[in-house]
Design a protein that fits this description.
Belongs to the cyclic nucleotide phosphodiesterase class-III family. Keywords: Hydrolase, Iron, Metal-binding. This is Metallophosphoesterase. The chain is of the alpha/beta class. Helix content is about 40%, strand content about 20%. The chain has 14 helices and 15 strands. The strands form 3 sheets. It has a 7-stranded mixed sheet with strand order 6-7-8-9-10-12-11, covered by helices on one side. Strands 3-2-1-13-14-15 form a 6-stranded mixed sheet. The radius of gyration is 24 Å and the shape is globular. It starts with a helix and ends with a strand.
Length: about 425
C-alpha cells in the first residue's frame, strides 16, 4: 500500500508539473511580441527604365544621396532579409517608386510577391512620388524620355494583394484602409497622396479615421497608424512640406483614442519625436539612403520596441556570387555616395571661402550622421560649426540646426502605452 501511495503521489506531482509547464507555455506564447517590419521611400526604379548612362549619373549626383545605381540589388537583398525575419507583416509607407513609373510599380509588385508567397502580409500606401507624376521617365544615354505613370485608380489594382484585399475597412475618398493583424492589433494605413489631396488630409478621410478608431475601441483593439508624410515636425530647418496638412486634427484623434504610434517617412531622415502630450512618431529613414535600413517593431501588451536594421546587401551579394566591389562593401559605398552628393551641394557656395574644401567635407559628414539618425556622433564644440556661421553661407542656418539637435540616437526607442 505504501508503495502504491508513493507512486500515486509521484504520478500526481508529474501531472501537476506538466500542467504548470503547459500553462506557462500558453502564457509565454500569448506574451510573445508581434514583430512588424516597416520600410519607406524605396524609390525603386525598374531596370527597364535605366541604362546607367550619362543622364542617369548626372541625375543621381544632383539628387539627395539615394543609392539608385544599385536600387534593384538593394531591393532584392531587402526582400530576402524580410523573408528570413518572418515578421507578422511588412509595411511600406509610400514613395515605392522613383517617380511613379508604371513599370517600376509593376516590377516592384512582382518582387513583393516573393514576400507574400512566404506567408508574410505586405501592406502598402502611396507616397507623393507614386501617383500622377510628371517626372516618370526612362533614362537613355545623355537624355531621358517620358514614360507612363501610375494613376490612383490603378494603384490598388497593381497592389491589390498588398493590404487592400485583406482590409477590414476602406476609405472611399482615398487609398486609406485598416488591416487587422489580429483581433487585438490593427494597422491603420492613412493615405494623403491621391489626386486632389497630395500631402493634405481631407475632412472626409479624417471622419473615416475617427470612425475606425471608435470601432477599434469598441472591439478592444490597439492601433498602429501609418502615413507617408509626417505627423510631427522632425527637423526645425526642413519640416516645411514634410508635415501633412491636417496633422493637428489627426494627432488629436490619435491621442484621444490611445493609438500606439504613427510610422512615417517622406523626409528620408531617421528621426523619432514625441508630441507635447507624449504621442510617439518614428520617421524611418529612406531605404535607398545610407545606412539603407528598415525598422523592426516588437509589439507587446502595453509596450512597443522600435529599432532600425540595415539591409545586409554585401552578404546578399556574396551569396549571389557578385564580383562588384561596391556591392561587396555596400555600406561603405552608400555612405561615400551620400557624402559625395552632399559635398557637391555646398562646394559651389564655398568657392570664395579660404577653407571651403574643409567646410564642404565637414558638412558632408555631419549631414550623413544627421540623416542616419545619429546626431550623437558629432562634436558640437567642433570649431567648424562656428566657421559655417561666420561664413553666412546659404546652408549656414541648416548647419546650425544640426548643432542644436539633441545628441541622441534616433535608431531605437521604447513606447509604453
Amino acid at each position: 500500500m505504501k508503495q502504491k501511495g508513493k507512486r500515486w503521489v509521484l504520478l500526481t506531482a508529474v501531472v501537476l508539473l506538466l500542467v504548470l509547464l503547459a500553462a506557462a507555455g500558453v502564457l509565454w506564447f500569448r506574451g510573445r511580441p508581434t514583430k512588424i517590419l516597416l520600410a519607406t521611400d524605396l524609390h525603386y526604379l525598374s531596370p527597364e527604365l535605366n541604362d546607367h548612362g550619362a543622364c542617369f549619373e548626372k541625375t543621381i549626383l544632383n539628387g539627395d544621396g539615394k543609392a539608385l545605381a544599385y536600387i534593384d540589388e538593394l531591393t532584392d537583398a531587402f526582400v530576402e532579409q524580410v523573408i528570413r525575419e518572418k515578421p507578422a507583416a511588412l509595411i511600406l509607407s509610400g514613395d515605392l517608386t522613383l517617380n511613379g513609373e508604371k513599370q517600376s510599380h509593376l516590377d516592384l509588385a512582382q518582387k513583393l510577391r516573393r514576400v507574400t508567397e512566404a506567408d508574410i502580409p505586405v501592406l502598402v500606401i502611396p507616397g507623393n512620388h507614386d501617383l500622377n507624376s510628371g517626372y516618370a521617365v526612362r533614362f537613355t544615354g545623355k537624355t531621358y524620355e517620358p514614360v507612363e505613370n501610375l494613376k490612383p485608380a490603378q494603384f490598388d489594382e497593381v497592389y491589390a494583394e498588398f493590404g487592400y484585399n485583406g482590409a477590414s475597412a476602406r476609405d472611399e475618398e482615398s487609398l486609406s484602409y485598416v488591416y487587422p493583424l489580429s483581433d487585438e492589433l490593427w494597422v491603420l494605413m492613412v493615405d494623403v497622396n491621391t489626386l486632389g489631396s497630395e500631402g493634405v488630409l481631407e475632412p472626409e478621410t479624417l471622419d473615416w479615421v475617427k470612425t475606425q478608431l471608435e470601432d477599434a475601441r469598441q472591439a478592444g483593439a490597439q492601433v498602429i497608424a501609418v502615413s507617408h508624410q509626417n505627423l510631427l515636425a522632425h527637423s526645425e530647418a526642413i519640416s516645411a512640406g514634410f508635415v501633412m496638412g491636417g496633422a493637428e486634427e489627426l494627432l488629436a484623434l490619435y491621442e484621444e483614442h490611445d493609438v500606439i504610434c504613427n510610422l512615417s517617412g517622406h523626409i528620408h531622415m531617421q528621426h523619432t519625436a514625441k508630441s507635447e502630450n507624449g504621442f510617439f512618431e518614428a520617421a524611418t529613414g529612406s531605404l535607398a539612403v545610407s545606412p539603407n535600413q528598415y525598422a523592426r517593431l516588437m509589439v507587446r501588451p502595453h509596450r512597443m520596441d522600435y529599432q532600425t536594421v540595415p539591409v545586409d546587401v554585401s552578404g546578399w551579394a556574396k551569396e549571389q556570387g557578385s564580383t562588384d566591389e561596391n556591392l561587396l562593401d555596400f555600406a561603405t559605398y552608400s555612405a561615400d555616395f551620400f557624402r559625395q552628393v552632399n559635398r557637391g551641394k555646398v562646394i559651389g557656395w564655398l568657392q570664395k571661402e579660404e577653407n571651403g574644401e574643409e567646410m564642404a567635407d565637414f558638412f558632408a559628414q555631419v549631414n550623413l550622421d544627421y540623416f542616419q539618425g545619429r546626431p550623437d556622433r558629432y562634436d558640437r564644440e567642433d570649431p567648424m560649426f562656428d566657421v559655417w556661421q561666420e561664413s553666412g553661407d546659404f546652408y549656414a542656418d541648416y548647419v546650425e540646426s544640426m548643432r542644436q539637435e539633441p545628441a541622441v540616437n534616433h535608431n531605437q526607442a521604447t513606447v509604453e502605452y
